[in-house]
Amino acid sequence: MSQEQMGWQAGFGSVDFTPPPNLPMMGNFRADYAATGTHDPLTARALVLQSRMDQAPVALLSLDLCMMPRSCVALMRRWIRERTGIPAGNVLIAATHTHSGPATLALYGMPKAEDSDIEAFLETAVGAVSSAVDRIRPAALKLGRGTEDRVSFNRRLLDASGQTHMNWEDLSEAEIARVLGPVDTEILALQVEHEDGSGGVVVNFALHPAVLDYANRLYSADYPGYLAEALKTLNGPRFEPLFFNGCCGNVNHIDYTDPDAPRRGYQATQRIGFMLAAATHSTLKHGATPLNAGPVRPLSEHVALARHPITDAQIEWARQVLERDDSPFVDAADGFPEEARAETWLEMHAAQHQADSVEVMAIRIGDMAIVGLPGEVFCEFGLDIKAKSPAAHTMVFELANDAIGYLPTREAFPQGGYEVVPGSTRYAPDAGEKLAQAAHRLLSDLFSTSTSPCPPSADG
């Protein structure tokens, strides 16, 4: 490796933060949310990176959780700053979006874990960053780009009558006229190599980790856990794999054209994880591009978003649903049960005239970029950000630094479907566009010159 390629400073850390059983799990609707045990560990994995020792490093932290609200992120950023000195504005924290982890917020009326339990496992999780800081040493970076087109599918389908369906519904291929959107099949892999042969990789791919459904009662990382397991097997025990989900708000693993394909359970989860690991490994072994040392610089912008209105008629319907006592709750693998929708609409109605402000983050790492968006983002936005980015390579992470619900395209709202129902989305139809525009602004600022010094990041 050349001296220029070894011009980075990097360190990895990981922590098993699996909590005790009986905490409510998040991601599926059911009568009993309590976890009964652990199938595979929930892990926090961190990469701390800087280009020169006189600059503050940035930290990337990935957690095997469904999502984290901004209050949890603020708490973790404070702990990281106090323990490592890394400014809070230099820390990006994202949930992998496994539907088999403990609940950190009461989404759709589902229960969340007690605050004391949440703080306990999050405090354990931030130890991954402390460990990464302790392991910082010279490193070389490579960027691999590959494709895996057999595991992800746009889940929004249009039938011949013009009605929108979701691909988890019981539909035959003959009933469907077309798929209402693309998928992002690109795997981006940022490899970090130390002189002693240790290192790791940041993997970015857009696919819902919701293979395990309401029937699963065990903590699990879903397919990202198998992805990490396979990459460690292929590269050795000192190799640390981080997974950051791409824009997959309208993308899942269900191929409606193949009713015999495995749809749920650990076998399907393992298949996806191992296939992504194989594609990642091949990408890194064949054609990864070295990244020469350059600036490491984070920027953030807070974007004002109008909330989705709830009508008087919807409020009346919600009250009627919650008053009735003759319809027992039915476990649901997918969709939005009426009881949950009713509670969510009442909550949204109370705040609908209060604009919100949400964070979009971007990080320059030499000639590549990372964008962090705070919700479950339709893949069209991720594709657009990458296509227009001034960086040579751009990763886009969803559920980064917050969890604000679905961010559909403007075109999706009149089409209908699960993601645009009030409650699934909480903001006006232009919200996704506004966040993508903020990402474009941040990337333009970060790459406006290749030689500008990196100002200290705001501490927040």
What does this structure look like?
With 460 residues, the protein is an alpha+beta fold. The chain has two domains: 8-156 and 179-304 and 357-406 and 429-446, no CATH class; 312-351, no CATH class. Helix content is 27%, strand content 26%. It contains ten helices and 24 strands. It has helices at residues 70-84, 115-125, 127-134, 223-235, 266-285, 312-323, 338-351, 379-388, 412-415, 431-446, and strands at 8-16, 25-26, 37-38, 43-50, 58-63, 91-95, 101-102, 137-147, 153-154, 156-159, 164-166, 176-179, 186-193, 199-205, 218-219, 239-245, 251-252, 289-291, 296-305, 356-365, 368-372, 376-377, 393-397, 406-407. Strands 1, 4, 5, 6, 8, 13, 14, 16 and 18 form a nine-stranded mixed sheet that branches. A four-stranded mixed sheet has the order 19-20-21-23, with helices on one face. Strand 13 and strand 14 form a beta hairpin. Helix 6 packs across helix 7. It is globular.
The low-pLDDT segments are 450-460
What is the residue-averaged pLDDT? 92
**Quaternary form:** single chain
Count the beta strands.
24
Distance between the termini: 37 Å
Which structural traits does this protein have?
single chain; 460 residues; alpha+beta; 2 domains; nine-stranded mixed β-sheet; four-stranded mixed β-sheet; 24 strands; 26% strand; globular
Quick overview of this protein structure:
This protein is α+β, with helices and mostly antiparallel strands. The protein is built from 10 helices and 24 strands.
